[in-house]
Design goal:
The structure holds two protein chains of two kinds. Chain A is built from 18 helices and 28 strands. By secondary structure, chain A is α+β, with helices and mostly antiparallel strands. Chain A has three domains: 26-120 and 186-236 and 242-274, Aldehyde oxidase/xanthine dehydrogenase, a/b hammerhead (Aldehyde Oxidoreductase, domain 3, Alpha-Beta Complex); 281-449 and 594-742, Aldehyde oxidase/xanthine dehydrogenase, molybdopterin binding domain (Aldehyde Oxidoreductase, domain 4, 2-Layer Sandwich); 450-590, Aldehyde Oxidoreductase, domain 4, CATH 3.30.365. A seven-stranded mixed sheet of chain A has the order 3-5-1-12-9-10-11. Chain A has a five-stranded mixed sheet with strand order 7-15-14-13-8, sandwiched between helices. Chain A is globular and about 85 Å long. By secondary structure, chain B is α+β, with helices and mostly antiparallel strands. Chain B has two domains: 5-80, Ubiquitin-like (UB roll) (Roll); 89-154, Orthogonal Bundle (DNA polymerase, domain 1), CATH 1.10.150. Chain B has a five-stranded mixed sheet with strand order 2-1-5-3-4, sandwiched between helices. The termini of chain B are far apart. Classes of the chains: A alpha+beta, B alpha+beta. The interface between A and B is large, with 56 and 56 residues.
Chain lengths: 743, 180
């Protein structure tokens, strides 16, 4: 199949305004009469509020409104209060908000709030939280036997006892992952204003999910959806961190109280300490395997730290625990556990990176113990069409083995047991330099769901197209939509305009998360174009006095097919249609498509300094089934960016807390993220089988590549040094400790 | 911040008189007084590089520079890199190579790259990586950014505008944070 618009490396359509600094993010907005909001947050991880006096703060110069917990009778959907009233459950929990003429005045007013806390001992770690005597974050637990349980999910398959009975070997290992931030560079920010005549609310915000925001803001403030207009602004990075509400309801209520536009920009420190990051986990795996490497049983207990309120994606972790492998007998129990931390949220690929780090590390442990090639054990167990996945769904195609093999081939994987060995490095690392190199492989999977998707397509009277969706354009999906529309309509990409509307000006869409936008919204863009073509064909067929199925739209023209050929340019047909029956407006909506499974496999090569425990990623080979790359440059960009985040997850990113539950590194110098110096050359192989239900066989690509990276690196470090890292991130201290232990 | 003064600043080749307190940050004066919002605030502590502008051709974190310290220096922001409607070769390269995703780091990244190329037109890969260590990008994994900058070192085309002044090392001690 030859395509004219899709499959092409087209630069992002929003690129020109971004490279010239013209793009307006929320913090760049200034409205007439705008004032500033600021928030007082709890300095304690767990405390009772004994006394709260605000009269002095209210009397401060410039103060226009002040809010406390009493002003918000309704909580967020997660159960988190908008402002805490009696108890605080994490450091950084919002307690008081003010609006003042200037930011300095707002901050000065907050300093005059009189508040007395009775500080209580916090619980900071999931294993401490489920101990019988643990402090209770909330009064109730969702589990009869364990305290502090926010939620529980099971995934069971086959007969776990019979499975272990068939196993020649059983391996039990525990792994631990850290709290992290998503790492977006634009902090959360919101501007809210009330339309003076109608009293209706407008909220400009940096969000991945404007319609979900609208629903939650409307609920909290007791307003109908139609009175809340959320305008999703260009987003300066999100990666799951802007799925949930942040300061929007506070900002909106301040705007209602003051009658003035209010801006709140969250400080970098608060963005670290008090917004929804990616929760830690403890993952206990018991795996039964036959001596030839066939996996027969997996039992897992997964403890995901959800912080002080719900948000941890324990169900997804349970569903994806099996990895891209066939495991006939499965018993997975996943808990979301309350602790006195800022509530957990989403991070790219949710809890998939957690569970794959554990599973893929353990597969390496098994391969090493059974003297099997780490590649072969993966190929042997790789999912095939019809195998159960995601609980009791059926794997739609056989692709996992091909992806794993592709990564191995590209990396020049030589078949050998996973034994620690020192590779010669030539001049750069002479013998005795203390540096060793190793290579590791890992795979991962992610399920892609379309979710609620809708699009409008208008054929303009000059034959150009306007595509309107309400999907927040994070990753360049608007550019891909233009390509899809151009391909479907048979016109050049330049003749398509894609508009991201707000909640008043576009059809409802679910959030831009889970790699769903290109898959689901891309498909409705294609269908809306087909709808518009069909409408146009009907109008022209009527004019020509022939059946609509004898009229074709494509290559910039409308023409009849099958004898008596007639043809007219698209522009003339569009104008004609406008005169007889009105504008051509195609539309399409869907709530679901047959789900897609995306598999990614990676081979990492690392160099480890055995003296210091420091390591460097030398090379990373990624292979991924992307369905079909509508825009290969954009797909590569997603893969490289995700892998970079996987590298940070493995290398250095970690929240560090003191015993009182206070975050010790809430800034970008102490919470280290990889820089331009830390990145090796990425080698990316796209596998395109076009078997998916997304547009032209495409599926989501943004989440999967983050999934296997940390495990591939852990396995490479083991291959280089014999040190098995069971806890993320792999800091020099941890490597050094492990090296001393094994030597 | 009670008594504003009149600060004489030279930004993007034009003289401006700004009523601002001398202790205001250059970033705030650019964004709030001059409406030049291309410089972004990602941290306010010189750690992310999103607020990078050029002072006499050198990259500085404008969140760490007092507006008063910019007096007497030539400040260049992303808005002044190329005439309206035209692109600097770096801007073109960032587009062509897919080096732009969310775009929040992009203005600072491009200016940091420009400062490097003005001083060293033939940088090695390592030179480019080092020059950009103070500019965090979370979207791209940096590879496409490095490719974009490299392509400009290879291309024959000259920037449509030269840097306004030769780099002067003694002035403008706005902390440019370089990692490692």
């Amino acid at each position: 199949m030859t395509y004219t618009a899709i499959g092409k490396r087209i630069p992002r359509l929003d690129g020109p305004e971004k490279v010239t600094g013209q793009t307006q993010y929320v913090a760049d907005l200034t409205l007439p009469g705008m004032v500033w909001g600021a928030i007082l947050r709890s300095p304690h991880a767990r405390a009772r509020i004994r006394r709260l006096h605000t009269s002095k703060a209210c009397a401060m110069p410039g103060v226009l409104a002040l809010l406390t917990g009493r002003d918000f009778p309704r909580a967020e959907f997660s159960g988190a209060p908008v402002l805490a009233s009696e108890r605080v459950r994490y450091q950084g929990e919002p307690v008081v908000a003010v609006a003042a003429e200037t930011y300095a005045q707002a901050v000065a007013a907050l300093a005059r709030v009189e508040i007395a806390y009775e500080v209580l001992p916090p619980v900071n770690h999931v294993l401490d939280a489920i101990a019988p005597a643990a402090p209770r974050v909330h009064d109730v637990s969702e589990d009869a036997h364990l305290p502090n349980i926010c939620g529980l999910a099971h995934r069971d398959r086959g007969d776990i006892r019979a499975g272990f009975a068939k196993a020649d070997h059983i391996f039990e290992d525990t792994f631990e992952t850290q709290w992290t931030h998503q790492g977006f560079v634009e902090p959360h920010a919101t501007v809210a204003a009330v339309e003076p005549a109608s009293g209706r609310l407008r909220v400009w915000t940096s969000t991945q999910a404007q319609f979900n925001q609208r629903a939650e803001i409307a609920y909290i403030l007791g307003l109908p959806h139609s009175h809340v207009r959320v305008i999703g602004m260009p987003v300066g990075g999100a990666f799951g961190g802007k799925n949930a509400l942040c300061v929007e309801p506070i900002c909106a209520e301040l705007a209602r109280r003051t009658g003035r536009p209010v801006k709140i920009v969250v400080s970098r420190r608060d963005d670290f300490a008090a917004t929804r990051g990616c929760g830690a986990s403890v993952l206990q795996l018991k795996t039964g395997v036959r001596k030839d490497g066939a996996l027969v049983a997996l039992e897992a207990r997964l403890l995901f730290d959800t912080g002080a309120y719900s948000g941890a994606q324990h169900g997804i972790g349970a569903s994806l625990m099996q990895g891209p492998y066939r495991i006939p007998n499965l018993a997975v129990k996943a808990y979301a556990v309350y602790t006195n931390k800022s509530p957990a949220g989403a991070r790219r690929a949710l809890t998939s990176p957690h569970v794959h780090f554990a599973l893929e590390s353990q597969l390496d442990i098994i391969a090493h113990a059974l003297k099997l090639d780490p590649l072969q054990i993966r190929l042997r167990n790789a999912l095939r069409k019809g195998d159960p996945v995601l609980g009791d769904m059926s794997m739609p195609y056989t692709v996992a083995g091909r992806v794993i093999q592709a990564a191995a081939d590209r990396a020049g994987w030589c078949h050998r047991p996973s034994s620690p060995q020192t590779l010669k490095r030539g001049a750069a690392a002479p013998p005795g330099s203390g540096k060793v190199r190793g290579r590791g492989i890992a795979a991962g999977h992610w399920s892609v769901w379309a979710g609620g998707s809708a699009a409008w397509v208008q054929l303009n009277e000059d034959g150009t197209l306007l595509v309107v969706t309400g999907a927040i354009n994070l990753t360049g999906t608007d550019t891909s939509f233009a390509q899809i529309a151009a391909e479907t309509f048979g016109i050049p990409v330049e003749r398509v305009t894609v508009h991201q509307g707000d909640t008043h000006t576009s059809p409802r869409n679910d959030g831009s998360w889970g790699s769903r936008v290109l898959f689901g919204v891309g498909e409705v863009v294609r269908r809306a174009c087909e709808d518009a073509k069909h409408q146009l064909a009907e109008v022209i067929a009527r004019e020509w006095g022939i059946a609509p199925d004898k009229v074709e739209v494509g290559e910039g023209r409308v023409r009849s097919v099958g004898g008596n050929e007639r043809s007219m340019p698209l522009a003339r047909a569009a104008a004609r249609a406008g005169d007889s029956g009105g504008a051509i407006v195609g539309r399409a909506s869907l709530s679901e498509l047959p789900f897609a499974v995306a598999v990614a496999a990676q081979v990492a090569e690392v160099e480890v300094d055995t003296e210091t425990g420091q390591w460097q990623l030398q090379r990373l080979v990624c292979a991924q089934d992307v369905g079909f790359a509508i825009n290969p440059m954009s797909v590569e960009g997603q893969i490289e960016g995700a892998v970079s985040q996987g590298l940070g997850y493995a290398l250095c990113e970690e929240y560090v807390y003191d015993g009182e539950g206070r975050l010790l590194n809430p800034d970008l110098m102490d919470f280290r993220m990889p820089t331009s110096l830390d990145h090796p050359d990425f080698d990316v192989a796209l596998i395109e089988e076009q078997q998916d239900s997304g547009p032209y066989g495409a599926k989501g690509v943004g989440e999967p590549p983050l999934v296997p990276t940390a495990a591939a690196i852990a396995n490479a470090i083991f291959n280089a040094t014999g040190a098995r890292l069971r806890r993320l991130p792999f800091t020099p201290e941890r490597i050094h400790q492990e090296l001393r232990r094994v030597s | 911040m009670k008594t504003p003064a009149t600060l004489h600043l030279r930004v993007n080749g034009r003289d401006h008189q700004v009523a601002a307190h001398p202790a205001e940050r250059l970033l705030d004066v650019l964004r709030h007084h001059l409406g030049l919002t291309g410089a972004k605030e990602g941290c306010g502590t010189g750690q992310c590089g999103a607020c990078t502008v050029l002072m006499d051709g050198r990259p500085v974190a404008s969140c760490l520079v007092l507006a008063a310290d910019a007096i007497g220096h030539e400040v260049t922001t992303i808005e002044g890199l190329a005439p309206a409607g035209r692109f600097h070769p770096l801007q073109e390269a960032f587009l062509k190579y897919g080096a732009v995703q969310c775009g929040f780091c992009t203005p600072g990244m491009i200016l940091a790259a420009k400062a490097l190329l003005d001083e060293n037109p033939k940088p090695t890969d390592e030179d480019i990586r080092r020059a950009l260590t103070g500019n965090l990008c979370r979207c791209t994994g940096y590879r496409k950014i490095l490719e974009a900058v490299k392509s400009v070192t290879r291309s024959k085309s000259r920037p449509v505008r030269r840097s306004p002044a030769k780099p002067r090392r003694s002035k403008g001690e706005g902390g440019k944070v370089t990692r490692r």
